[in-house]
C-alpha cells in the first residue's frame, strides 16, 4: 500500500489547533529559481532564497488558522496512520470577485519528508470541495512564485487568475492563480492519482 492510500484527512475546529500544532512539521524550502513578472510576461530567474519557520512563526501560523476557522474558514490536515501530520491547508470563509465568485486558498503545505506522494493534490482537492460548498466558482491562490510551487499548481490544473481579487493578494510578488471548483477537475485528479501510483516521483509536490 502506498503512503497516499494510508492518509486520513481531518477537518479542525479552532479549539483543536494548539500552539504547538506545527512543532515537528518539517518545512525548509530552498528556492533557486522563481517566476518574475516582466513587460513580456512571466519569466524564470535565478534566486537564492531560504524559507523556513522558527518557533515563533509556527505559533503564529497556528493562531492564524484558528482565527480563520472562527471567521468561517476551514483547516484540513492529512495524517499518517500513526497520527503524524503530513500536510495541511486553510481556506478562508469569505467570497469575493466581480467576474466570478472566488474563495481564497490561504495556506497549503506538505511536510518535507512526505513530498511527492500526492498529499498536496489531495489537500488541494479537499480545498476545492470546501470552496464549492461555500458557493465559490473558483479558488484563488496568491502563490509563492518559486519554480517548484508554480509547477505543482499548474500540474493540478491551476492557471493564472483571470481576475485580481485584491483582498486575497498576499504579496505583490506572488503569482496569482485560480482553479475551478467544478466537478470537471475530478477526471484530471483521477489520472494524477493513477500516475502517482505508477511513479511516486512524477508529481511536483511541496
Describe the structure.
Mean pLDDT is 90; it is low at 196-206. The protein is built from four helices and nine strands, in the order E-E-E-H-E-E-E-H-E-H-E-E-H. It has 206 residues and is of the alpha+beta class. It has helices spanning 55-70, 119-134, 147-155, 185-198, and strands at 8-11, 28-38, 41-52, 74-79, 85-91, 102-110, 138-143, 159-160, 175-180. Strand 2 (28-38) and strand 3 form a beta hairpin. The strands form two sheets. The protein has a seven-stranded mixed β-sheet, with helices on both faces.
Structural descriptors:
9 strands, 4 helices, 7-stranded mixed beta sheet, disordered C terminus, alpha+beta, two-stranded antiparallel sheet, 206 residues
Mean pLDDT: 90
What is the rounded distance between the termini? 22 Å
- Tell me the overall shape: globular
Number of H/I helices: 4
SSE pattern, N- to C-terminal:
EEEHEEEHEHEEH
Q: Structural class per helix/strand content?
A: alpha+beta
The largest sheet is: 7 strands, mixed
How many strands in all?
A: 9
Low-confidence stretches: 196-206
Q: Helix proportion of residues, in percent?
A: 25-40%
The strand line-up of the biggest sheet is 1-4-5-6-7-9-8
Rg for CA atoms: 16 Å
**Hey, roughly how much beta strand do the residues contain?**
25-35%
